[in-house]
Amino acid sequence: MTSYIAESPIQLLKPASSIALWYANMNDDQAWNTSKYFPVLHDPVQAKLVIQQEQQLLWIAESEDTVLFHHQPEDEFLAYVEMVRGQGTLPHIQRLHHGESDSDADKHSQDKELTLLPFLLTEQVRQWSYEKGWKLRYDDADYVRRLNDKYQVRRFVEKNGFAVTKGYFCHTPEQLEEAYRRIQVQGFTQAVLKSPHGSSGKGLSVIDSEAAFHKLLAFIRRRAATFELLLEAWHPIKRSLNAQISIQPNEVHLLAITEQRILERGIYVGTDYAPQIPAALRETYENEMLRLGHLLQQQGYTGVIGVDSIVDELEDLYPIIEINGRFTQVTYLLPFVESQLHSHTFVESRYIRLDAERKYTFSEMKAALDEALEPDIHQRYVIYTYAAQQHAERWHYRVFLLFLGQDADSFHHMIDRFERFTLASLEGVEGK
């Protein structure tokens, strides 16, 4: 068995001898969370916008591939992606109707074998693939669910001797109170209560005061006298690292190390694709990620995982905070990012939420961003997702940008301007 840093991510992510069907079922893991032990807010508009993040498949799928979309992107956006990618024609887009595709994907195959590459393998996706006669590179949906379980991951981390954050499994309100007291005595000012499933800030509740803890505890007491919940200390974070690992039957490949931009309460806002990491830390981190990959390989796992890790303010590395046993949004951009790192020192992603009284086309949004961000040959940006959804007579947007730069000050100044971008910019364009 070998392990090494991969030089060509796309060759490890898709089968070489068949047509790839890319499918982004990005909301499916929410169905796994059945516990109701702490308040969860559901925003149906944002959920629909998340579905449109399937547009990211256009940045990894090759011309002969097919992408299975729930939502048809604007023609202007598709033309823009084709131009920026510079890799020939876009993949074939097949619309899904009520979760099923028609026969166009099979016609497009040109008699080649079809392999489904879902964002997340679930039992429903596995059955769908078998019914359609599509191959899967890995079909153990039950194992994938366990791998995405925060509780299972913590027990795995403890069992295999990885450094682990302070935390306790609790089964009664009294145990929760005792665990919170222990976390306080250990000097932590914040804690986090985790449910088994959820990513990007979902499935957890950050506790930043004793009053907040008792309010949450009262909520839990009203729902159950016994349960299983995980209470962890919130370590002050200096860096939030992420590793992309490809695990094959005979090889483990480290695809990329990135750094996540995380808000105080654990909300993901972007990724640094070219982080500057001290050599000693990078070597330790790479070794721990490859060790993790080999351990999962020994259990029979095949596929891609994303691993969330932290370095705390004491410079201690906690290599496995969470495992995402699936593709991630970072994965989909890797081939394009790799092509840009030859000419750009800095590469980071960000996104913004906007809403307006009317629909703004992609070209209108692009013109407003150009005016606000003033890109040039040294510092520029790429829009890699343009999601728009109408609700209650208003239009809502999630716009994802990849920033590319050569000068640190100018690069970060552009990102700062983007984070202050408002609809006033759009109104200025409209009035011209």
TrEMBL record:
InterPro entries: ATP-grasp, ATP-grasp_PylC-type, ATP_grasp_subdomain_1
Keywords of this entry: ATP-binding, Nucleotide-binding
Domain ATP-grasp per the UniProt entry, residue ranges: 154-355
SUPFAM superfamilies in the record: Glutathione synthetase ATP-binding domain-like
Pfam families in alphabetical order: ATP-grasp_3
Superkingdom of the source species: Bacteria
Gene3D superfamilies listed in its UniProt record: ATP-grasp fold, A domain (3.30.1490.20), ATP-grasp fold, B domain (3.30.470.20)
Name this polypeptide is given: ATP-grasp domain-containing protein
Organism encoding this protein: Paenibacillus arenosi
